[in-house]
Amino acid sequence: MTVREVNFDGLVGPTHNYSGLAHGNVASMSHEGLVANPREAALQGLEKMKSLMDAGYAQGVLPPQQRPDLGALRALGFSGSDAEVLARAAGEAPQLLRAVCSASSMWTANAGTVTPSVDAADGRVHFTPANLQSSFHRYLEPATTARVLGAIFRDEAHFAHHPVLPATPAFSDEGAANHTRLAGEHGAPGVHLYVYGRQAFGGDGVEPRRFPARQTLEASQAVARQHGLAAAQTVFAQQHPAAIDAGVFHNDVIAVGNGPVLLYHEMAFRDEQGTLEALREKMATPLIPVRVPVEAVSLDDAVASYLFNSQLLSNPDGTMTLVVPGECQEREAVWRCLQDHLLAGHNPIAEVVVKDVKQSMRNGGGPACLRLRVALSAAERAALSGRVLLDDALYAELTAWVERHYRDRLAPADLADPQLATETLTALDELTGLLELGSVYPFQRC
Ligand code: SUG
């Protein structure tokens, strides 16, 4: 197994809170105002990483971003000392203060899109940070994301970085959450399934009506073009508008693929058969579709449980493990589907592992949202910069770091506290030392 999938999980930042910022994301909308526990959130994430590492999967970590983003507030006209900027924003525009405090970079499935070297004409791993332009709080991420990815995947002989797409609605890009690579195994050539919610130019106007479609066809096509993928390597499929309107704001809330397996809900794609046929036609190996019908799991149950936001992981014996959020146990139909349909079915899924990531889930981020998959050869893994591959020592240090710096209670009203900003900068400065990343944050660069 020289090519391995490395899951780079986002470390939850110290300002994790419930501000209800994500329109169309049912969990975020319904948990607005709740008191968050950033320490528990970060520890839940670390525990997931550690248990997957202990089970033999390759695990990486990506740092959180600098929040509150005081630079963004200054760009919007707030001036004075840091404390004055925070106080003015809290008084005059609390919604902006909440946005610049979001810890949303934890969901690294939205950090960018990655193409492994085996599929790229130049034999390098390709990265495009997602512009995340569909919401203000996430639009703030790509500049630092690009620096972090650039710092870790620094070696130009192995890694190629592309510019963020134009941050305008026509090129709305949410990264790997809408991208699935299907292949016989991680080291074999793959077919890239890009799922979009709407077409910016032309199209037939069949789009969601209630909630926004976050990914455009044009954005997905541009990423594929940047990465040098040929038509024979790509499939572009429209998400079912009814799914988006039910709260499926990314494809990874309704489908997950790994190797030749595509686990998906009947309502994932506008043209289910056409999507499967296109994949079959282009894949070098037989596609294994695992379809969950509406009768087994309703759209509402899929959204509430995040069944499809599970991590589907390959095991050396050819079986796969599905890492599901704890919420799947709370929905009877979902739990039954896991036992009777998925585990007992004729497919490689042989094990279900339940993980508690409730703090993240309340903002609409399940196990799969928390990780960016990067398939890397042994030489590429050896070429990584920084100390970002998890081992026991790093896990222990990160856990201690969280326990030293994170609060266990954060309400939206606490975001104006200048002390929170100071605590966060101290923590992040220490973290970049721990991860050996150099100066990736704005406060370290001025
Ligand atoms: O973009 N939530 C994120 C959740 C992203 C989940 N990622 C994937 N499905 N891959 C979003 O909607 C909520 C933040 C808040 O409400 O404060 C938020 O941004």
Give a structural overview:
The protein has one domain: L-arginine/glycine Amidinotransferase, Chain A. The chain has helices at residues 26-30, 38-54, 70-75, 82-92, 94-101, 136-139, 142-152, 217-226, 241-245, 272-282, 299-305, 327-330, 332-343, 358-361, 378-382, 392-405, 418-434, 442-445; strands at 4-10, 58-62, 112-115, 125-129, 159-161, 179-183, 190-196, 234-238, 255-258, 261-265, 288-292, 311-314, 320-325, 349-355, 371-376. Helix 2 (38-54) packs antiparallel against helix 16, helix 4 crosses helix 5 (94-101) and helix 16 runs antiparallel to helix 17. It is globular. The termini are far apart. The mean pLDDT is 97. Strand 12 (311-314) and strand 13 (320-325) form a beta hairpin. The chain has 446 residues and is an alpha/beta fold. The protein has a 3-stranded mixed sheet. A 3-stranded mixed sheet has the order 3-4-5. The chain is 35% helix and 17% strand.
The CATH H-level superfamily is Succinylarginine dihydrolase
**What general outline do the C-alpha atoms trace?**
globular
Helical run tally: 18
Bound molecules: N~2~-(3-carboxypropanoyl)-L-arginine
Report the helical percentage. 25-40%
Q: Could you name the ranges where pLDDT drops below 50 across 5 or more consecutive residues?
A: none
Q: Please give the order of strands in the largest beta sheet.
A: 2-1-15
Content-based structural category: alpha/beta
CATH fold-level label: L-arginine/glycine Amidinotransferase, Chain A
User: Major beta sheet, specifics?
Assistant: 3 strands, mixed
What's the rounded overall pLDDT mean? Answer: 97
Radius of gyration: 20 Å
What's the CATH architecture name?
5-stranded Propeller
CATH class: Alpha Beta
Number of structural domains: 1
Note the beta-strand portion.
Answer: 15-25%
The oligomeric state is single chain
